[in-house]
Specification:
The chain has seven helices and no strands. With 139 residues, the chain is mostly helical.
């Protein structure tokens, strides 16, 4: 019986977490899922090679959408539980995935692409203002 791709992925994520335990395994899976979401929305999911590449700023933009869809106004709390405190942490996760050979990079890609990308609290509060206002009025 061979080793599945999922087993390889899980092993590599666990290896990363042994070296860098700042982020939960869910944070890594979220970034990989957010990358798939990004590629789909940019129409890159059917492309190959360099044409599939997504830059850090593009990924951060779609992480906001994906997290908003998945977690609504609770996204900042979910991120905090996973060890993600700012957008630069997504860069750390991406580069850990690159080091584990689960993602590739271009020479121009940098952790700096993720610095000051967005403020979790304000982005998700604004996106979900109506929901948050309704919750506040119930109290």
């Amino acid at each position: 019986m061979g080793v599945s791709e999922q087993d390889v992925l899980e092993d590599r994520i666990e290896d990363m977490r042994l070296r860098d335990h700042r982020f939960s395994r869910n944070a890594y899976y979220f970034v990989l899922d957010a990358l798939d979401y990004t590629m789909s929305h940019l129409g890159k999911d059917q492309l190959t090679g360099e044409d599939r590449h997504v830059g850090g700023r593009e990924l951060l933009y779609f992480i906001q959408d994906f997290a908003s869809d998945q977690f609504g106004p609770m996204a900042p709390i979910v991120f905090e539980q996973w060890g993600i405190r700012g957008s630069e942490d997504f860069g750390e996760i991406v580069f850990n995935l690159i080091d584990a050979e689960l993602l590739s990079r271009r020479p121009c890609d940098s952790r700096l692409d993720f610095v000051e990308g967005f403020d979790f609290q304000s982005v998700f509060a604004e996106r979900h203002r109506n929901t948050l206002d309704r919750i506040a009025q119930r109290g």
